[in-house]
Input
Amino acid sequence: MHRNTESKLLLHCLGMGTDEITAARLDQLSASDWDGILQQSARHGVAPLLYQRLQTLGPGSNIPPEVAQRLRTTFLHSALSNMRLYHELARVLRALRDEDIPVIALKGAHLAEVVYGNIALRPMSDVDLLVRKTDLSRVEEKLLEMGYILDEKNTAEFVEHNAHFMYQLPREGLWLEIHWNIQQSDSPFTVDVDGLWERARPAMIAGAKALALSPEDLLLHVCLHTAFRHLFTKSALRSLCDISETIRHYQGKMNWEQVRLRTRQWGVGKCACITLRLARKLLGAAVPDEVLQSLEPDSFDARSVAWAEGRIFAQTDDTIGPSPEGHILVQIDDATGPLSDGWGRLWASKRLLDKLSIFLKTCFPAPQAMAEIYSAPPGSKRVYLYYPIRLKDLLRRHARRAWQLLCRDDETTMWIQREARRVEQQAIAKWLASA
Output
């Protein structure tokens, strides 16, 4: 998927937007061009950062006053919203410190103040904190005492899967996420949580004493979150800005050898390689060549970077189909084996040949698979007699839905689209985790 003009200019301003070339290019923009840039910046959650970058161009940049005013309004709104969050965060951090409960500030709370150096530049919708699992009950007791309530999302399944509790401060409309791990319970990676605590560094967050991840852990956490948690869709461009700013802030202090070693220990080679390559390509992040080369797993395909970029700049977060060329789909099949849901895979595939291949494999699987399905002896010639039965079974189970799809039934179409997204997400996650 190709980036449009507005996206290209937005990236130029975010990554390198303080030179004369940028100013000259901005002078030539029409009102509709600027409207597109503002829409893109709002969609990706980087409008305050865009405002700051454009401010560095100086008064002679000829940025339309209405554009500057809209960006300034967004910047001030972000500043006000984050001030409220940090005011409450200070209260929480001090309360937990009084109880001798160590806390690591994660993601936005750490990035906005420490890395960006200006809390308005990094919008946040909630605050993420990491505590030890053994302290969870004490943390909850203190938060409930402070007026927080458990959010209704905290079902047993949600909490176990996401490794965090959500708390809400009703009168303020603020949310806290209390994590005991930085990855989900079903994550295939091996993040050493005890190591995160050992390497954590003292930090002043919201005027209160707390801990922050080491630069190397912070960098890999953002990479993992961008690639595996959100599959290069939700706020991915803002995450790439986080990476670029983290590298800039810790310039000369980032231990790239530790990044390389930890990447291999955690098993996040594809996540780190694709994300760091994108940060350098799109924003000029200072990632050394030798680091990128050393992070590449043996099965790495450079085309996956273009695929991830396409997901970032898709018009919606509901993009279906791993890539126009289908090469990622092939890698996914190779890494994970056949997926059980042929409907979702058929819809997710873009090319007719891919659809035909999936259809045939789903309807007429290999003899070994047929033997398992129908409990036939492995290697028996009798298994071929089950293929007509297989076709009859499929017609009985799916003919009605297939007919509804051919008739463009809205409910059936929406169901298959949901299945396609689910299948795609599962497949991409497995592929990212494969060696």
Remarks:
- Residues 322-433 form one domain.
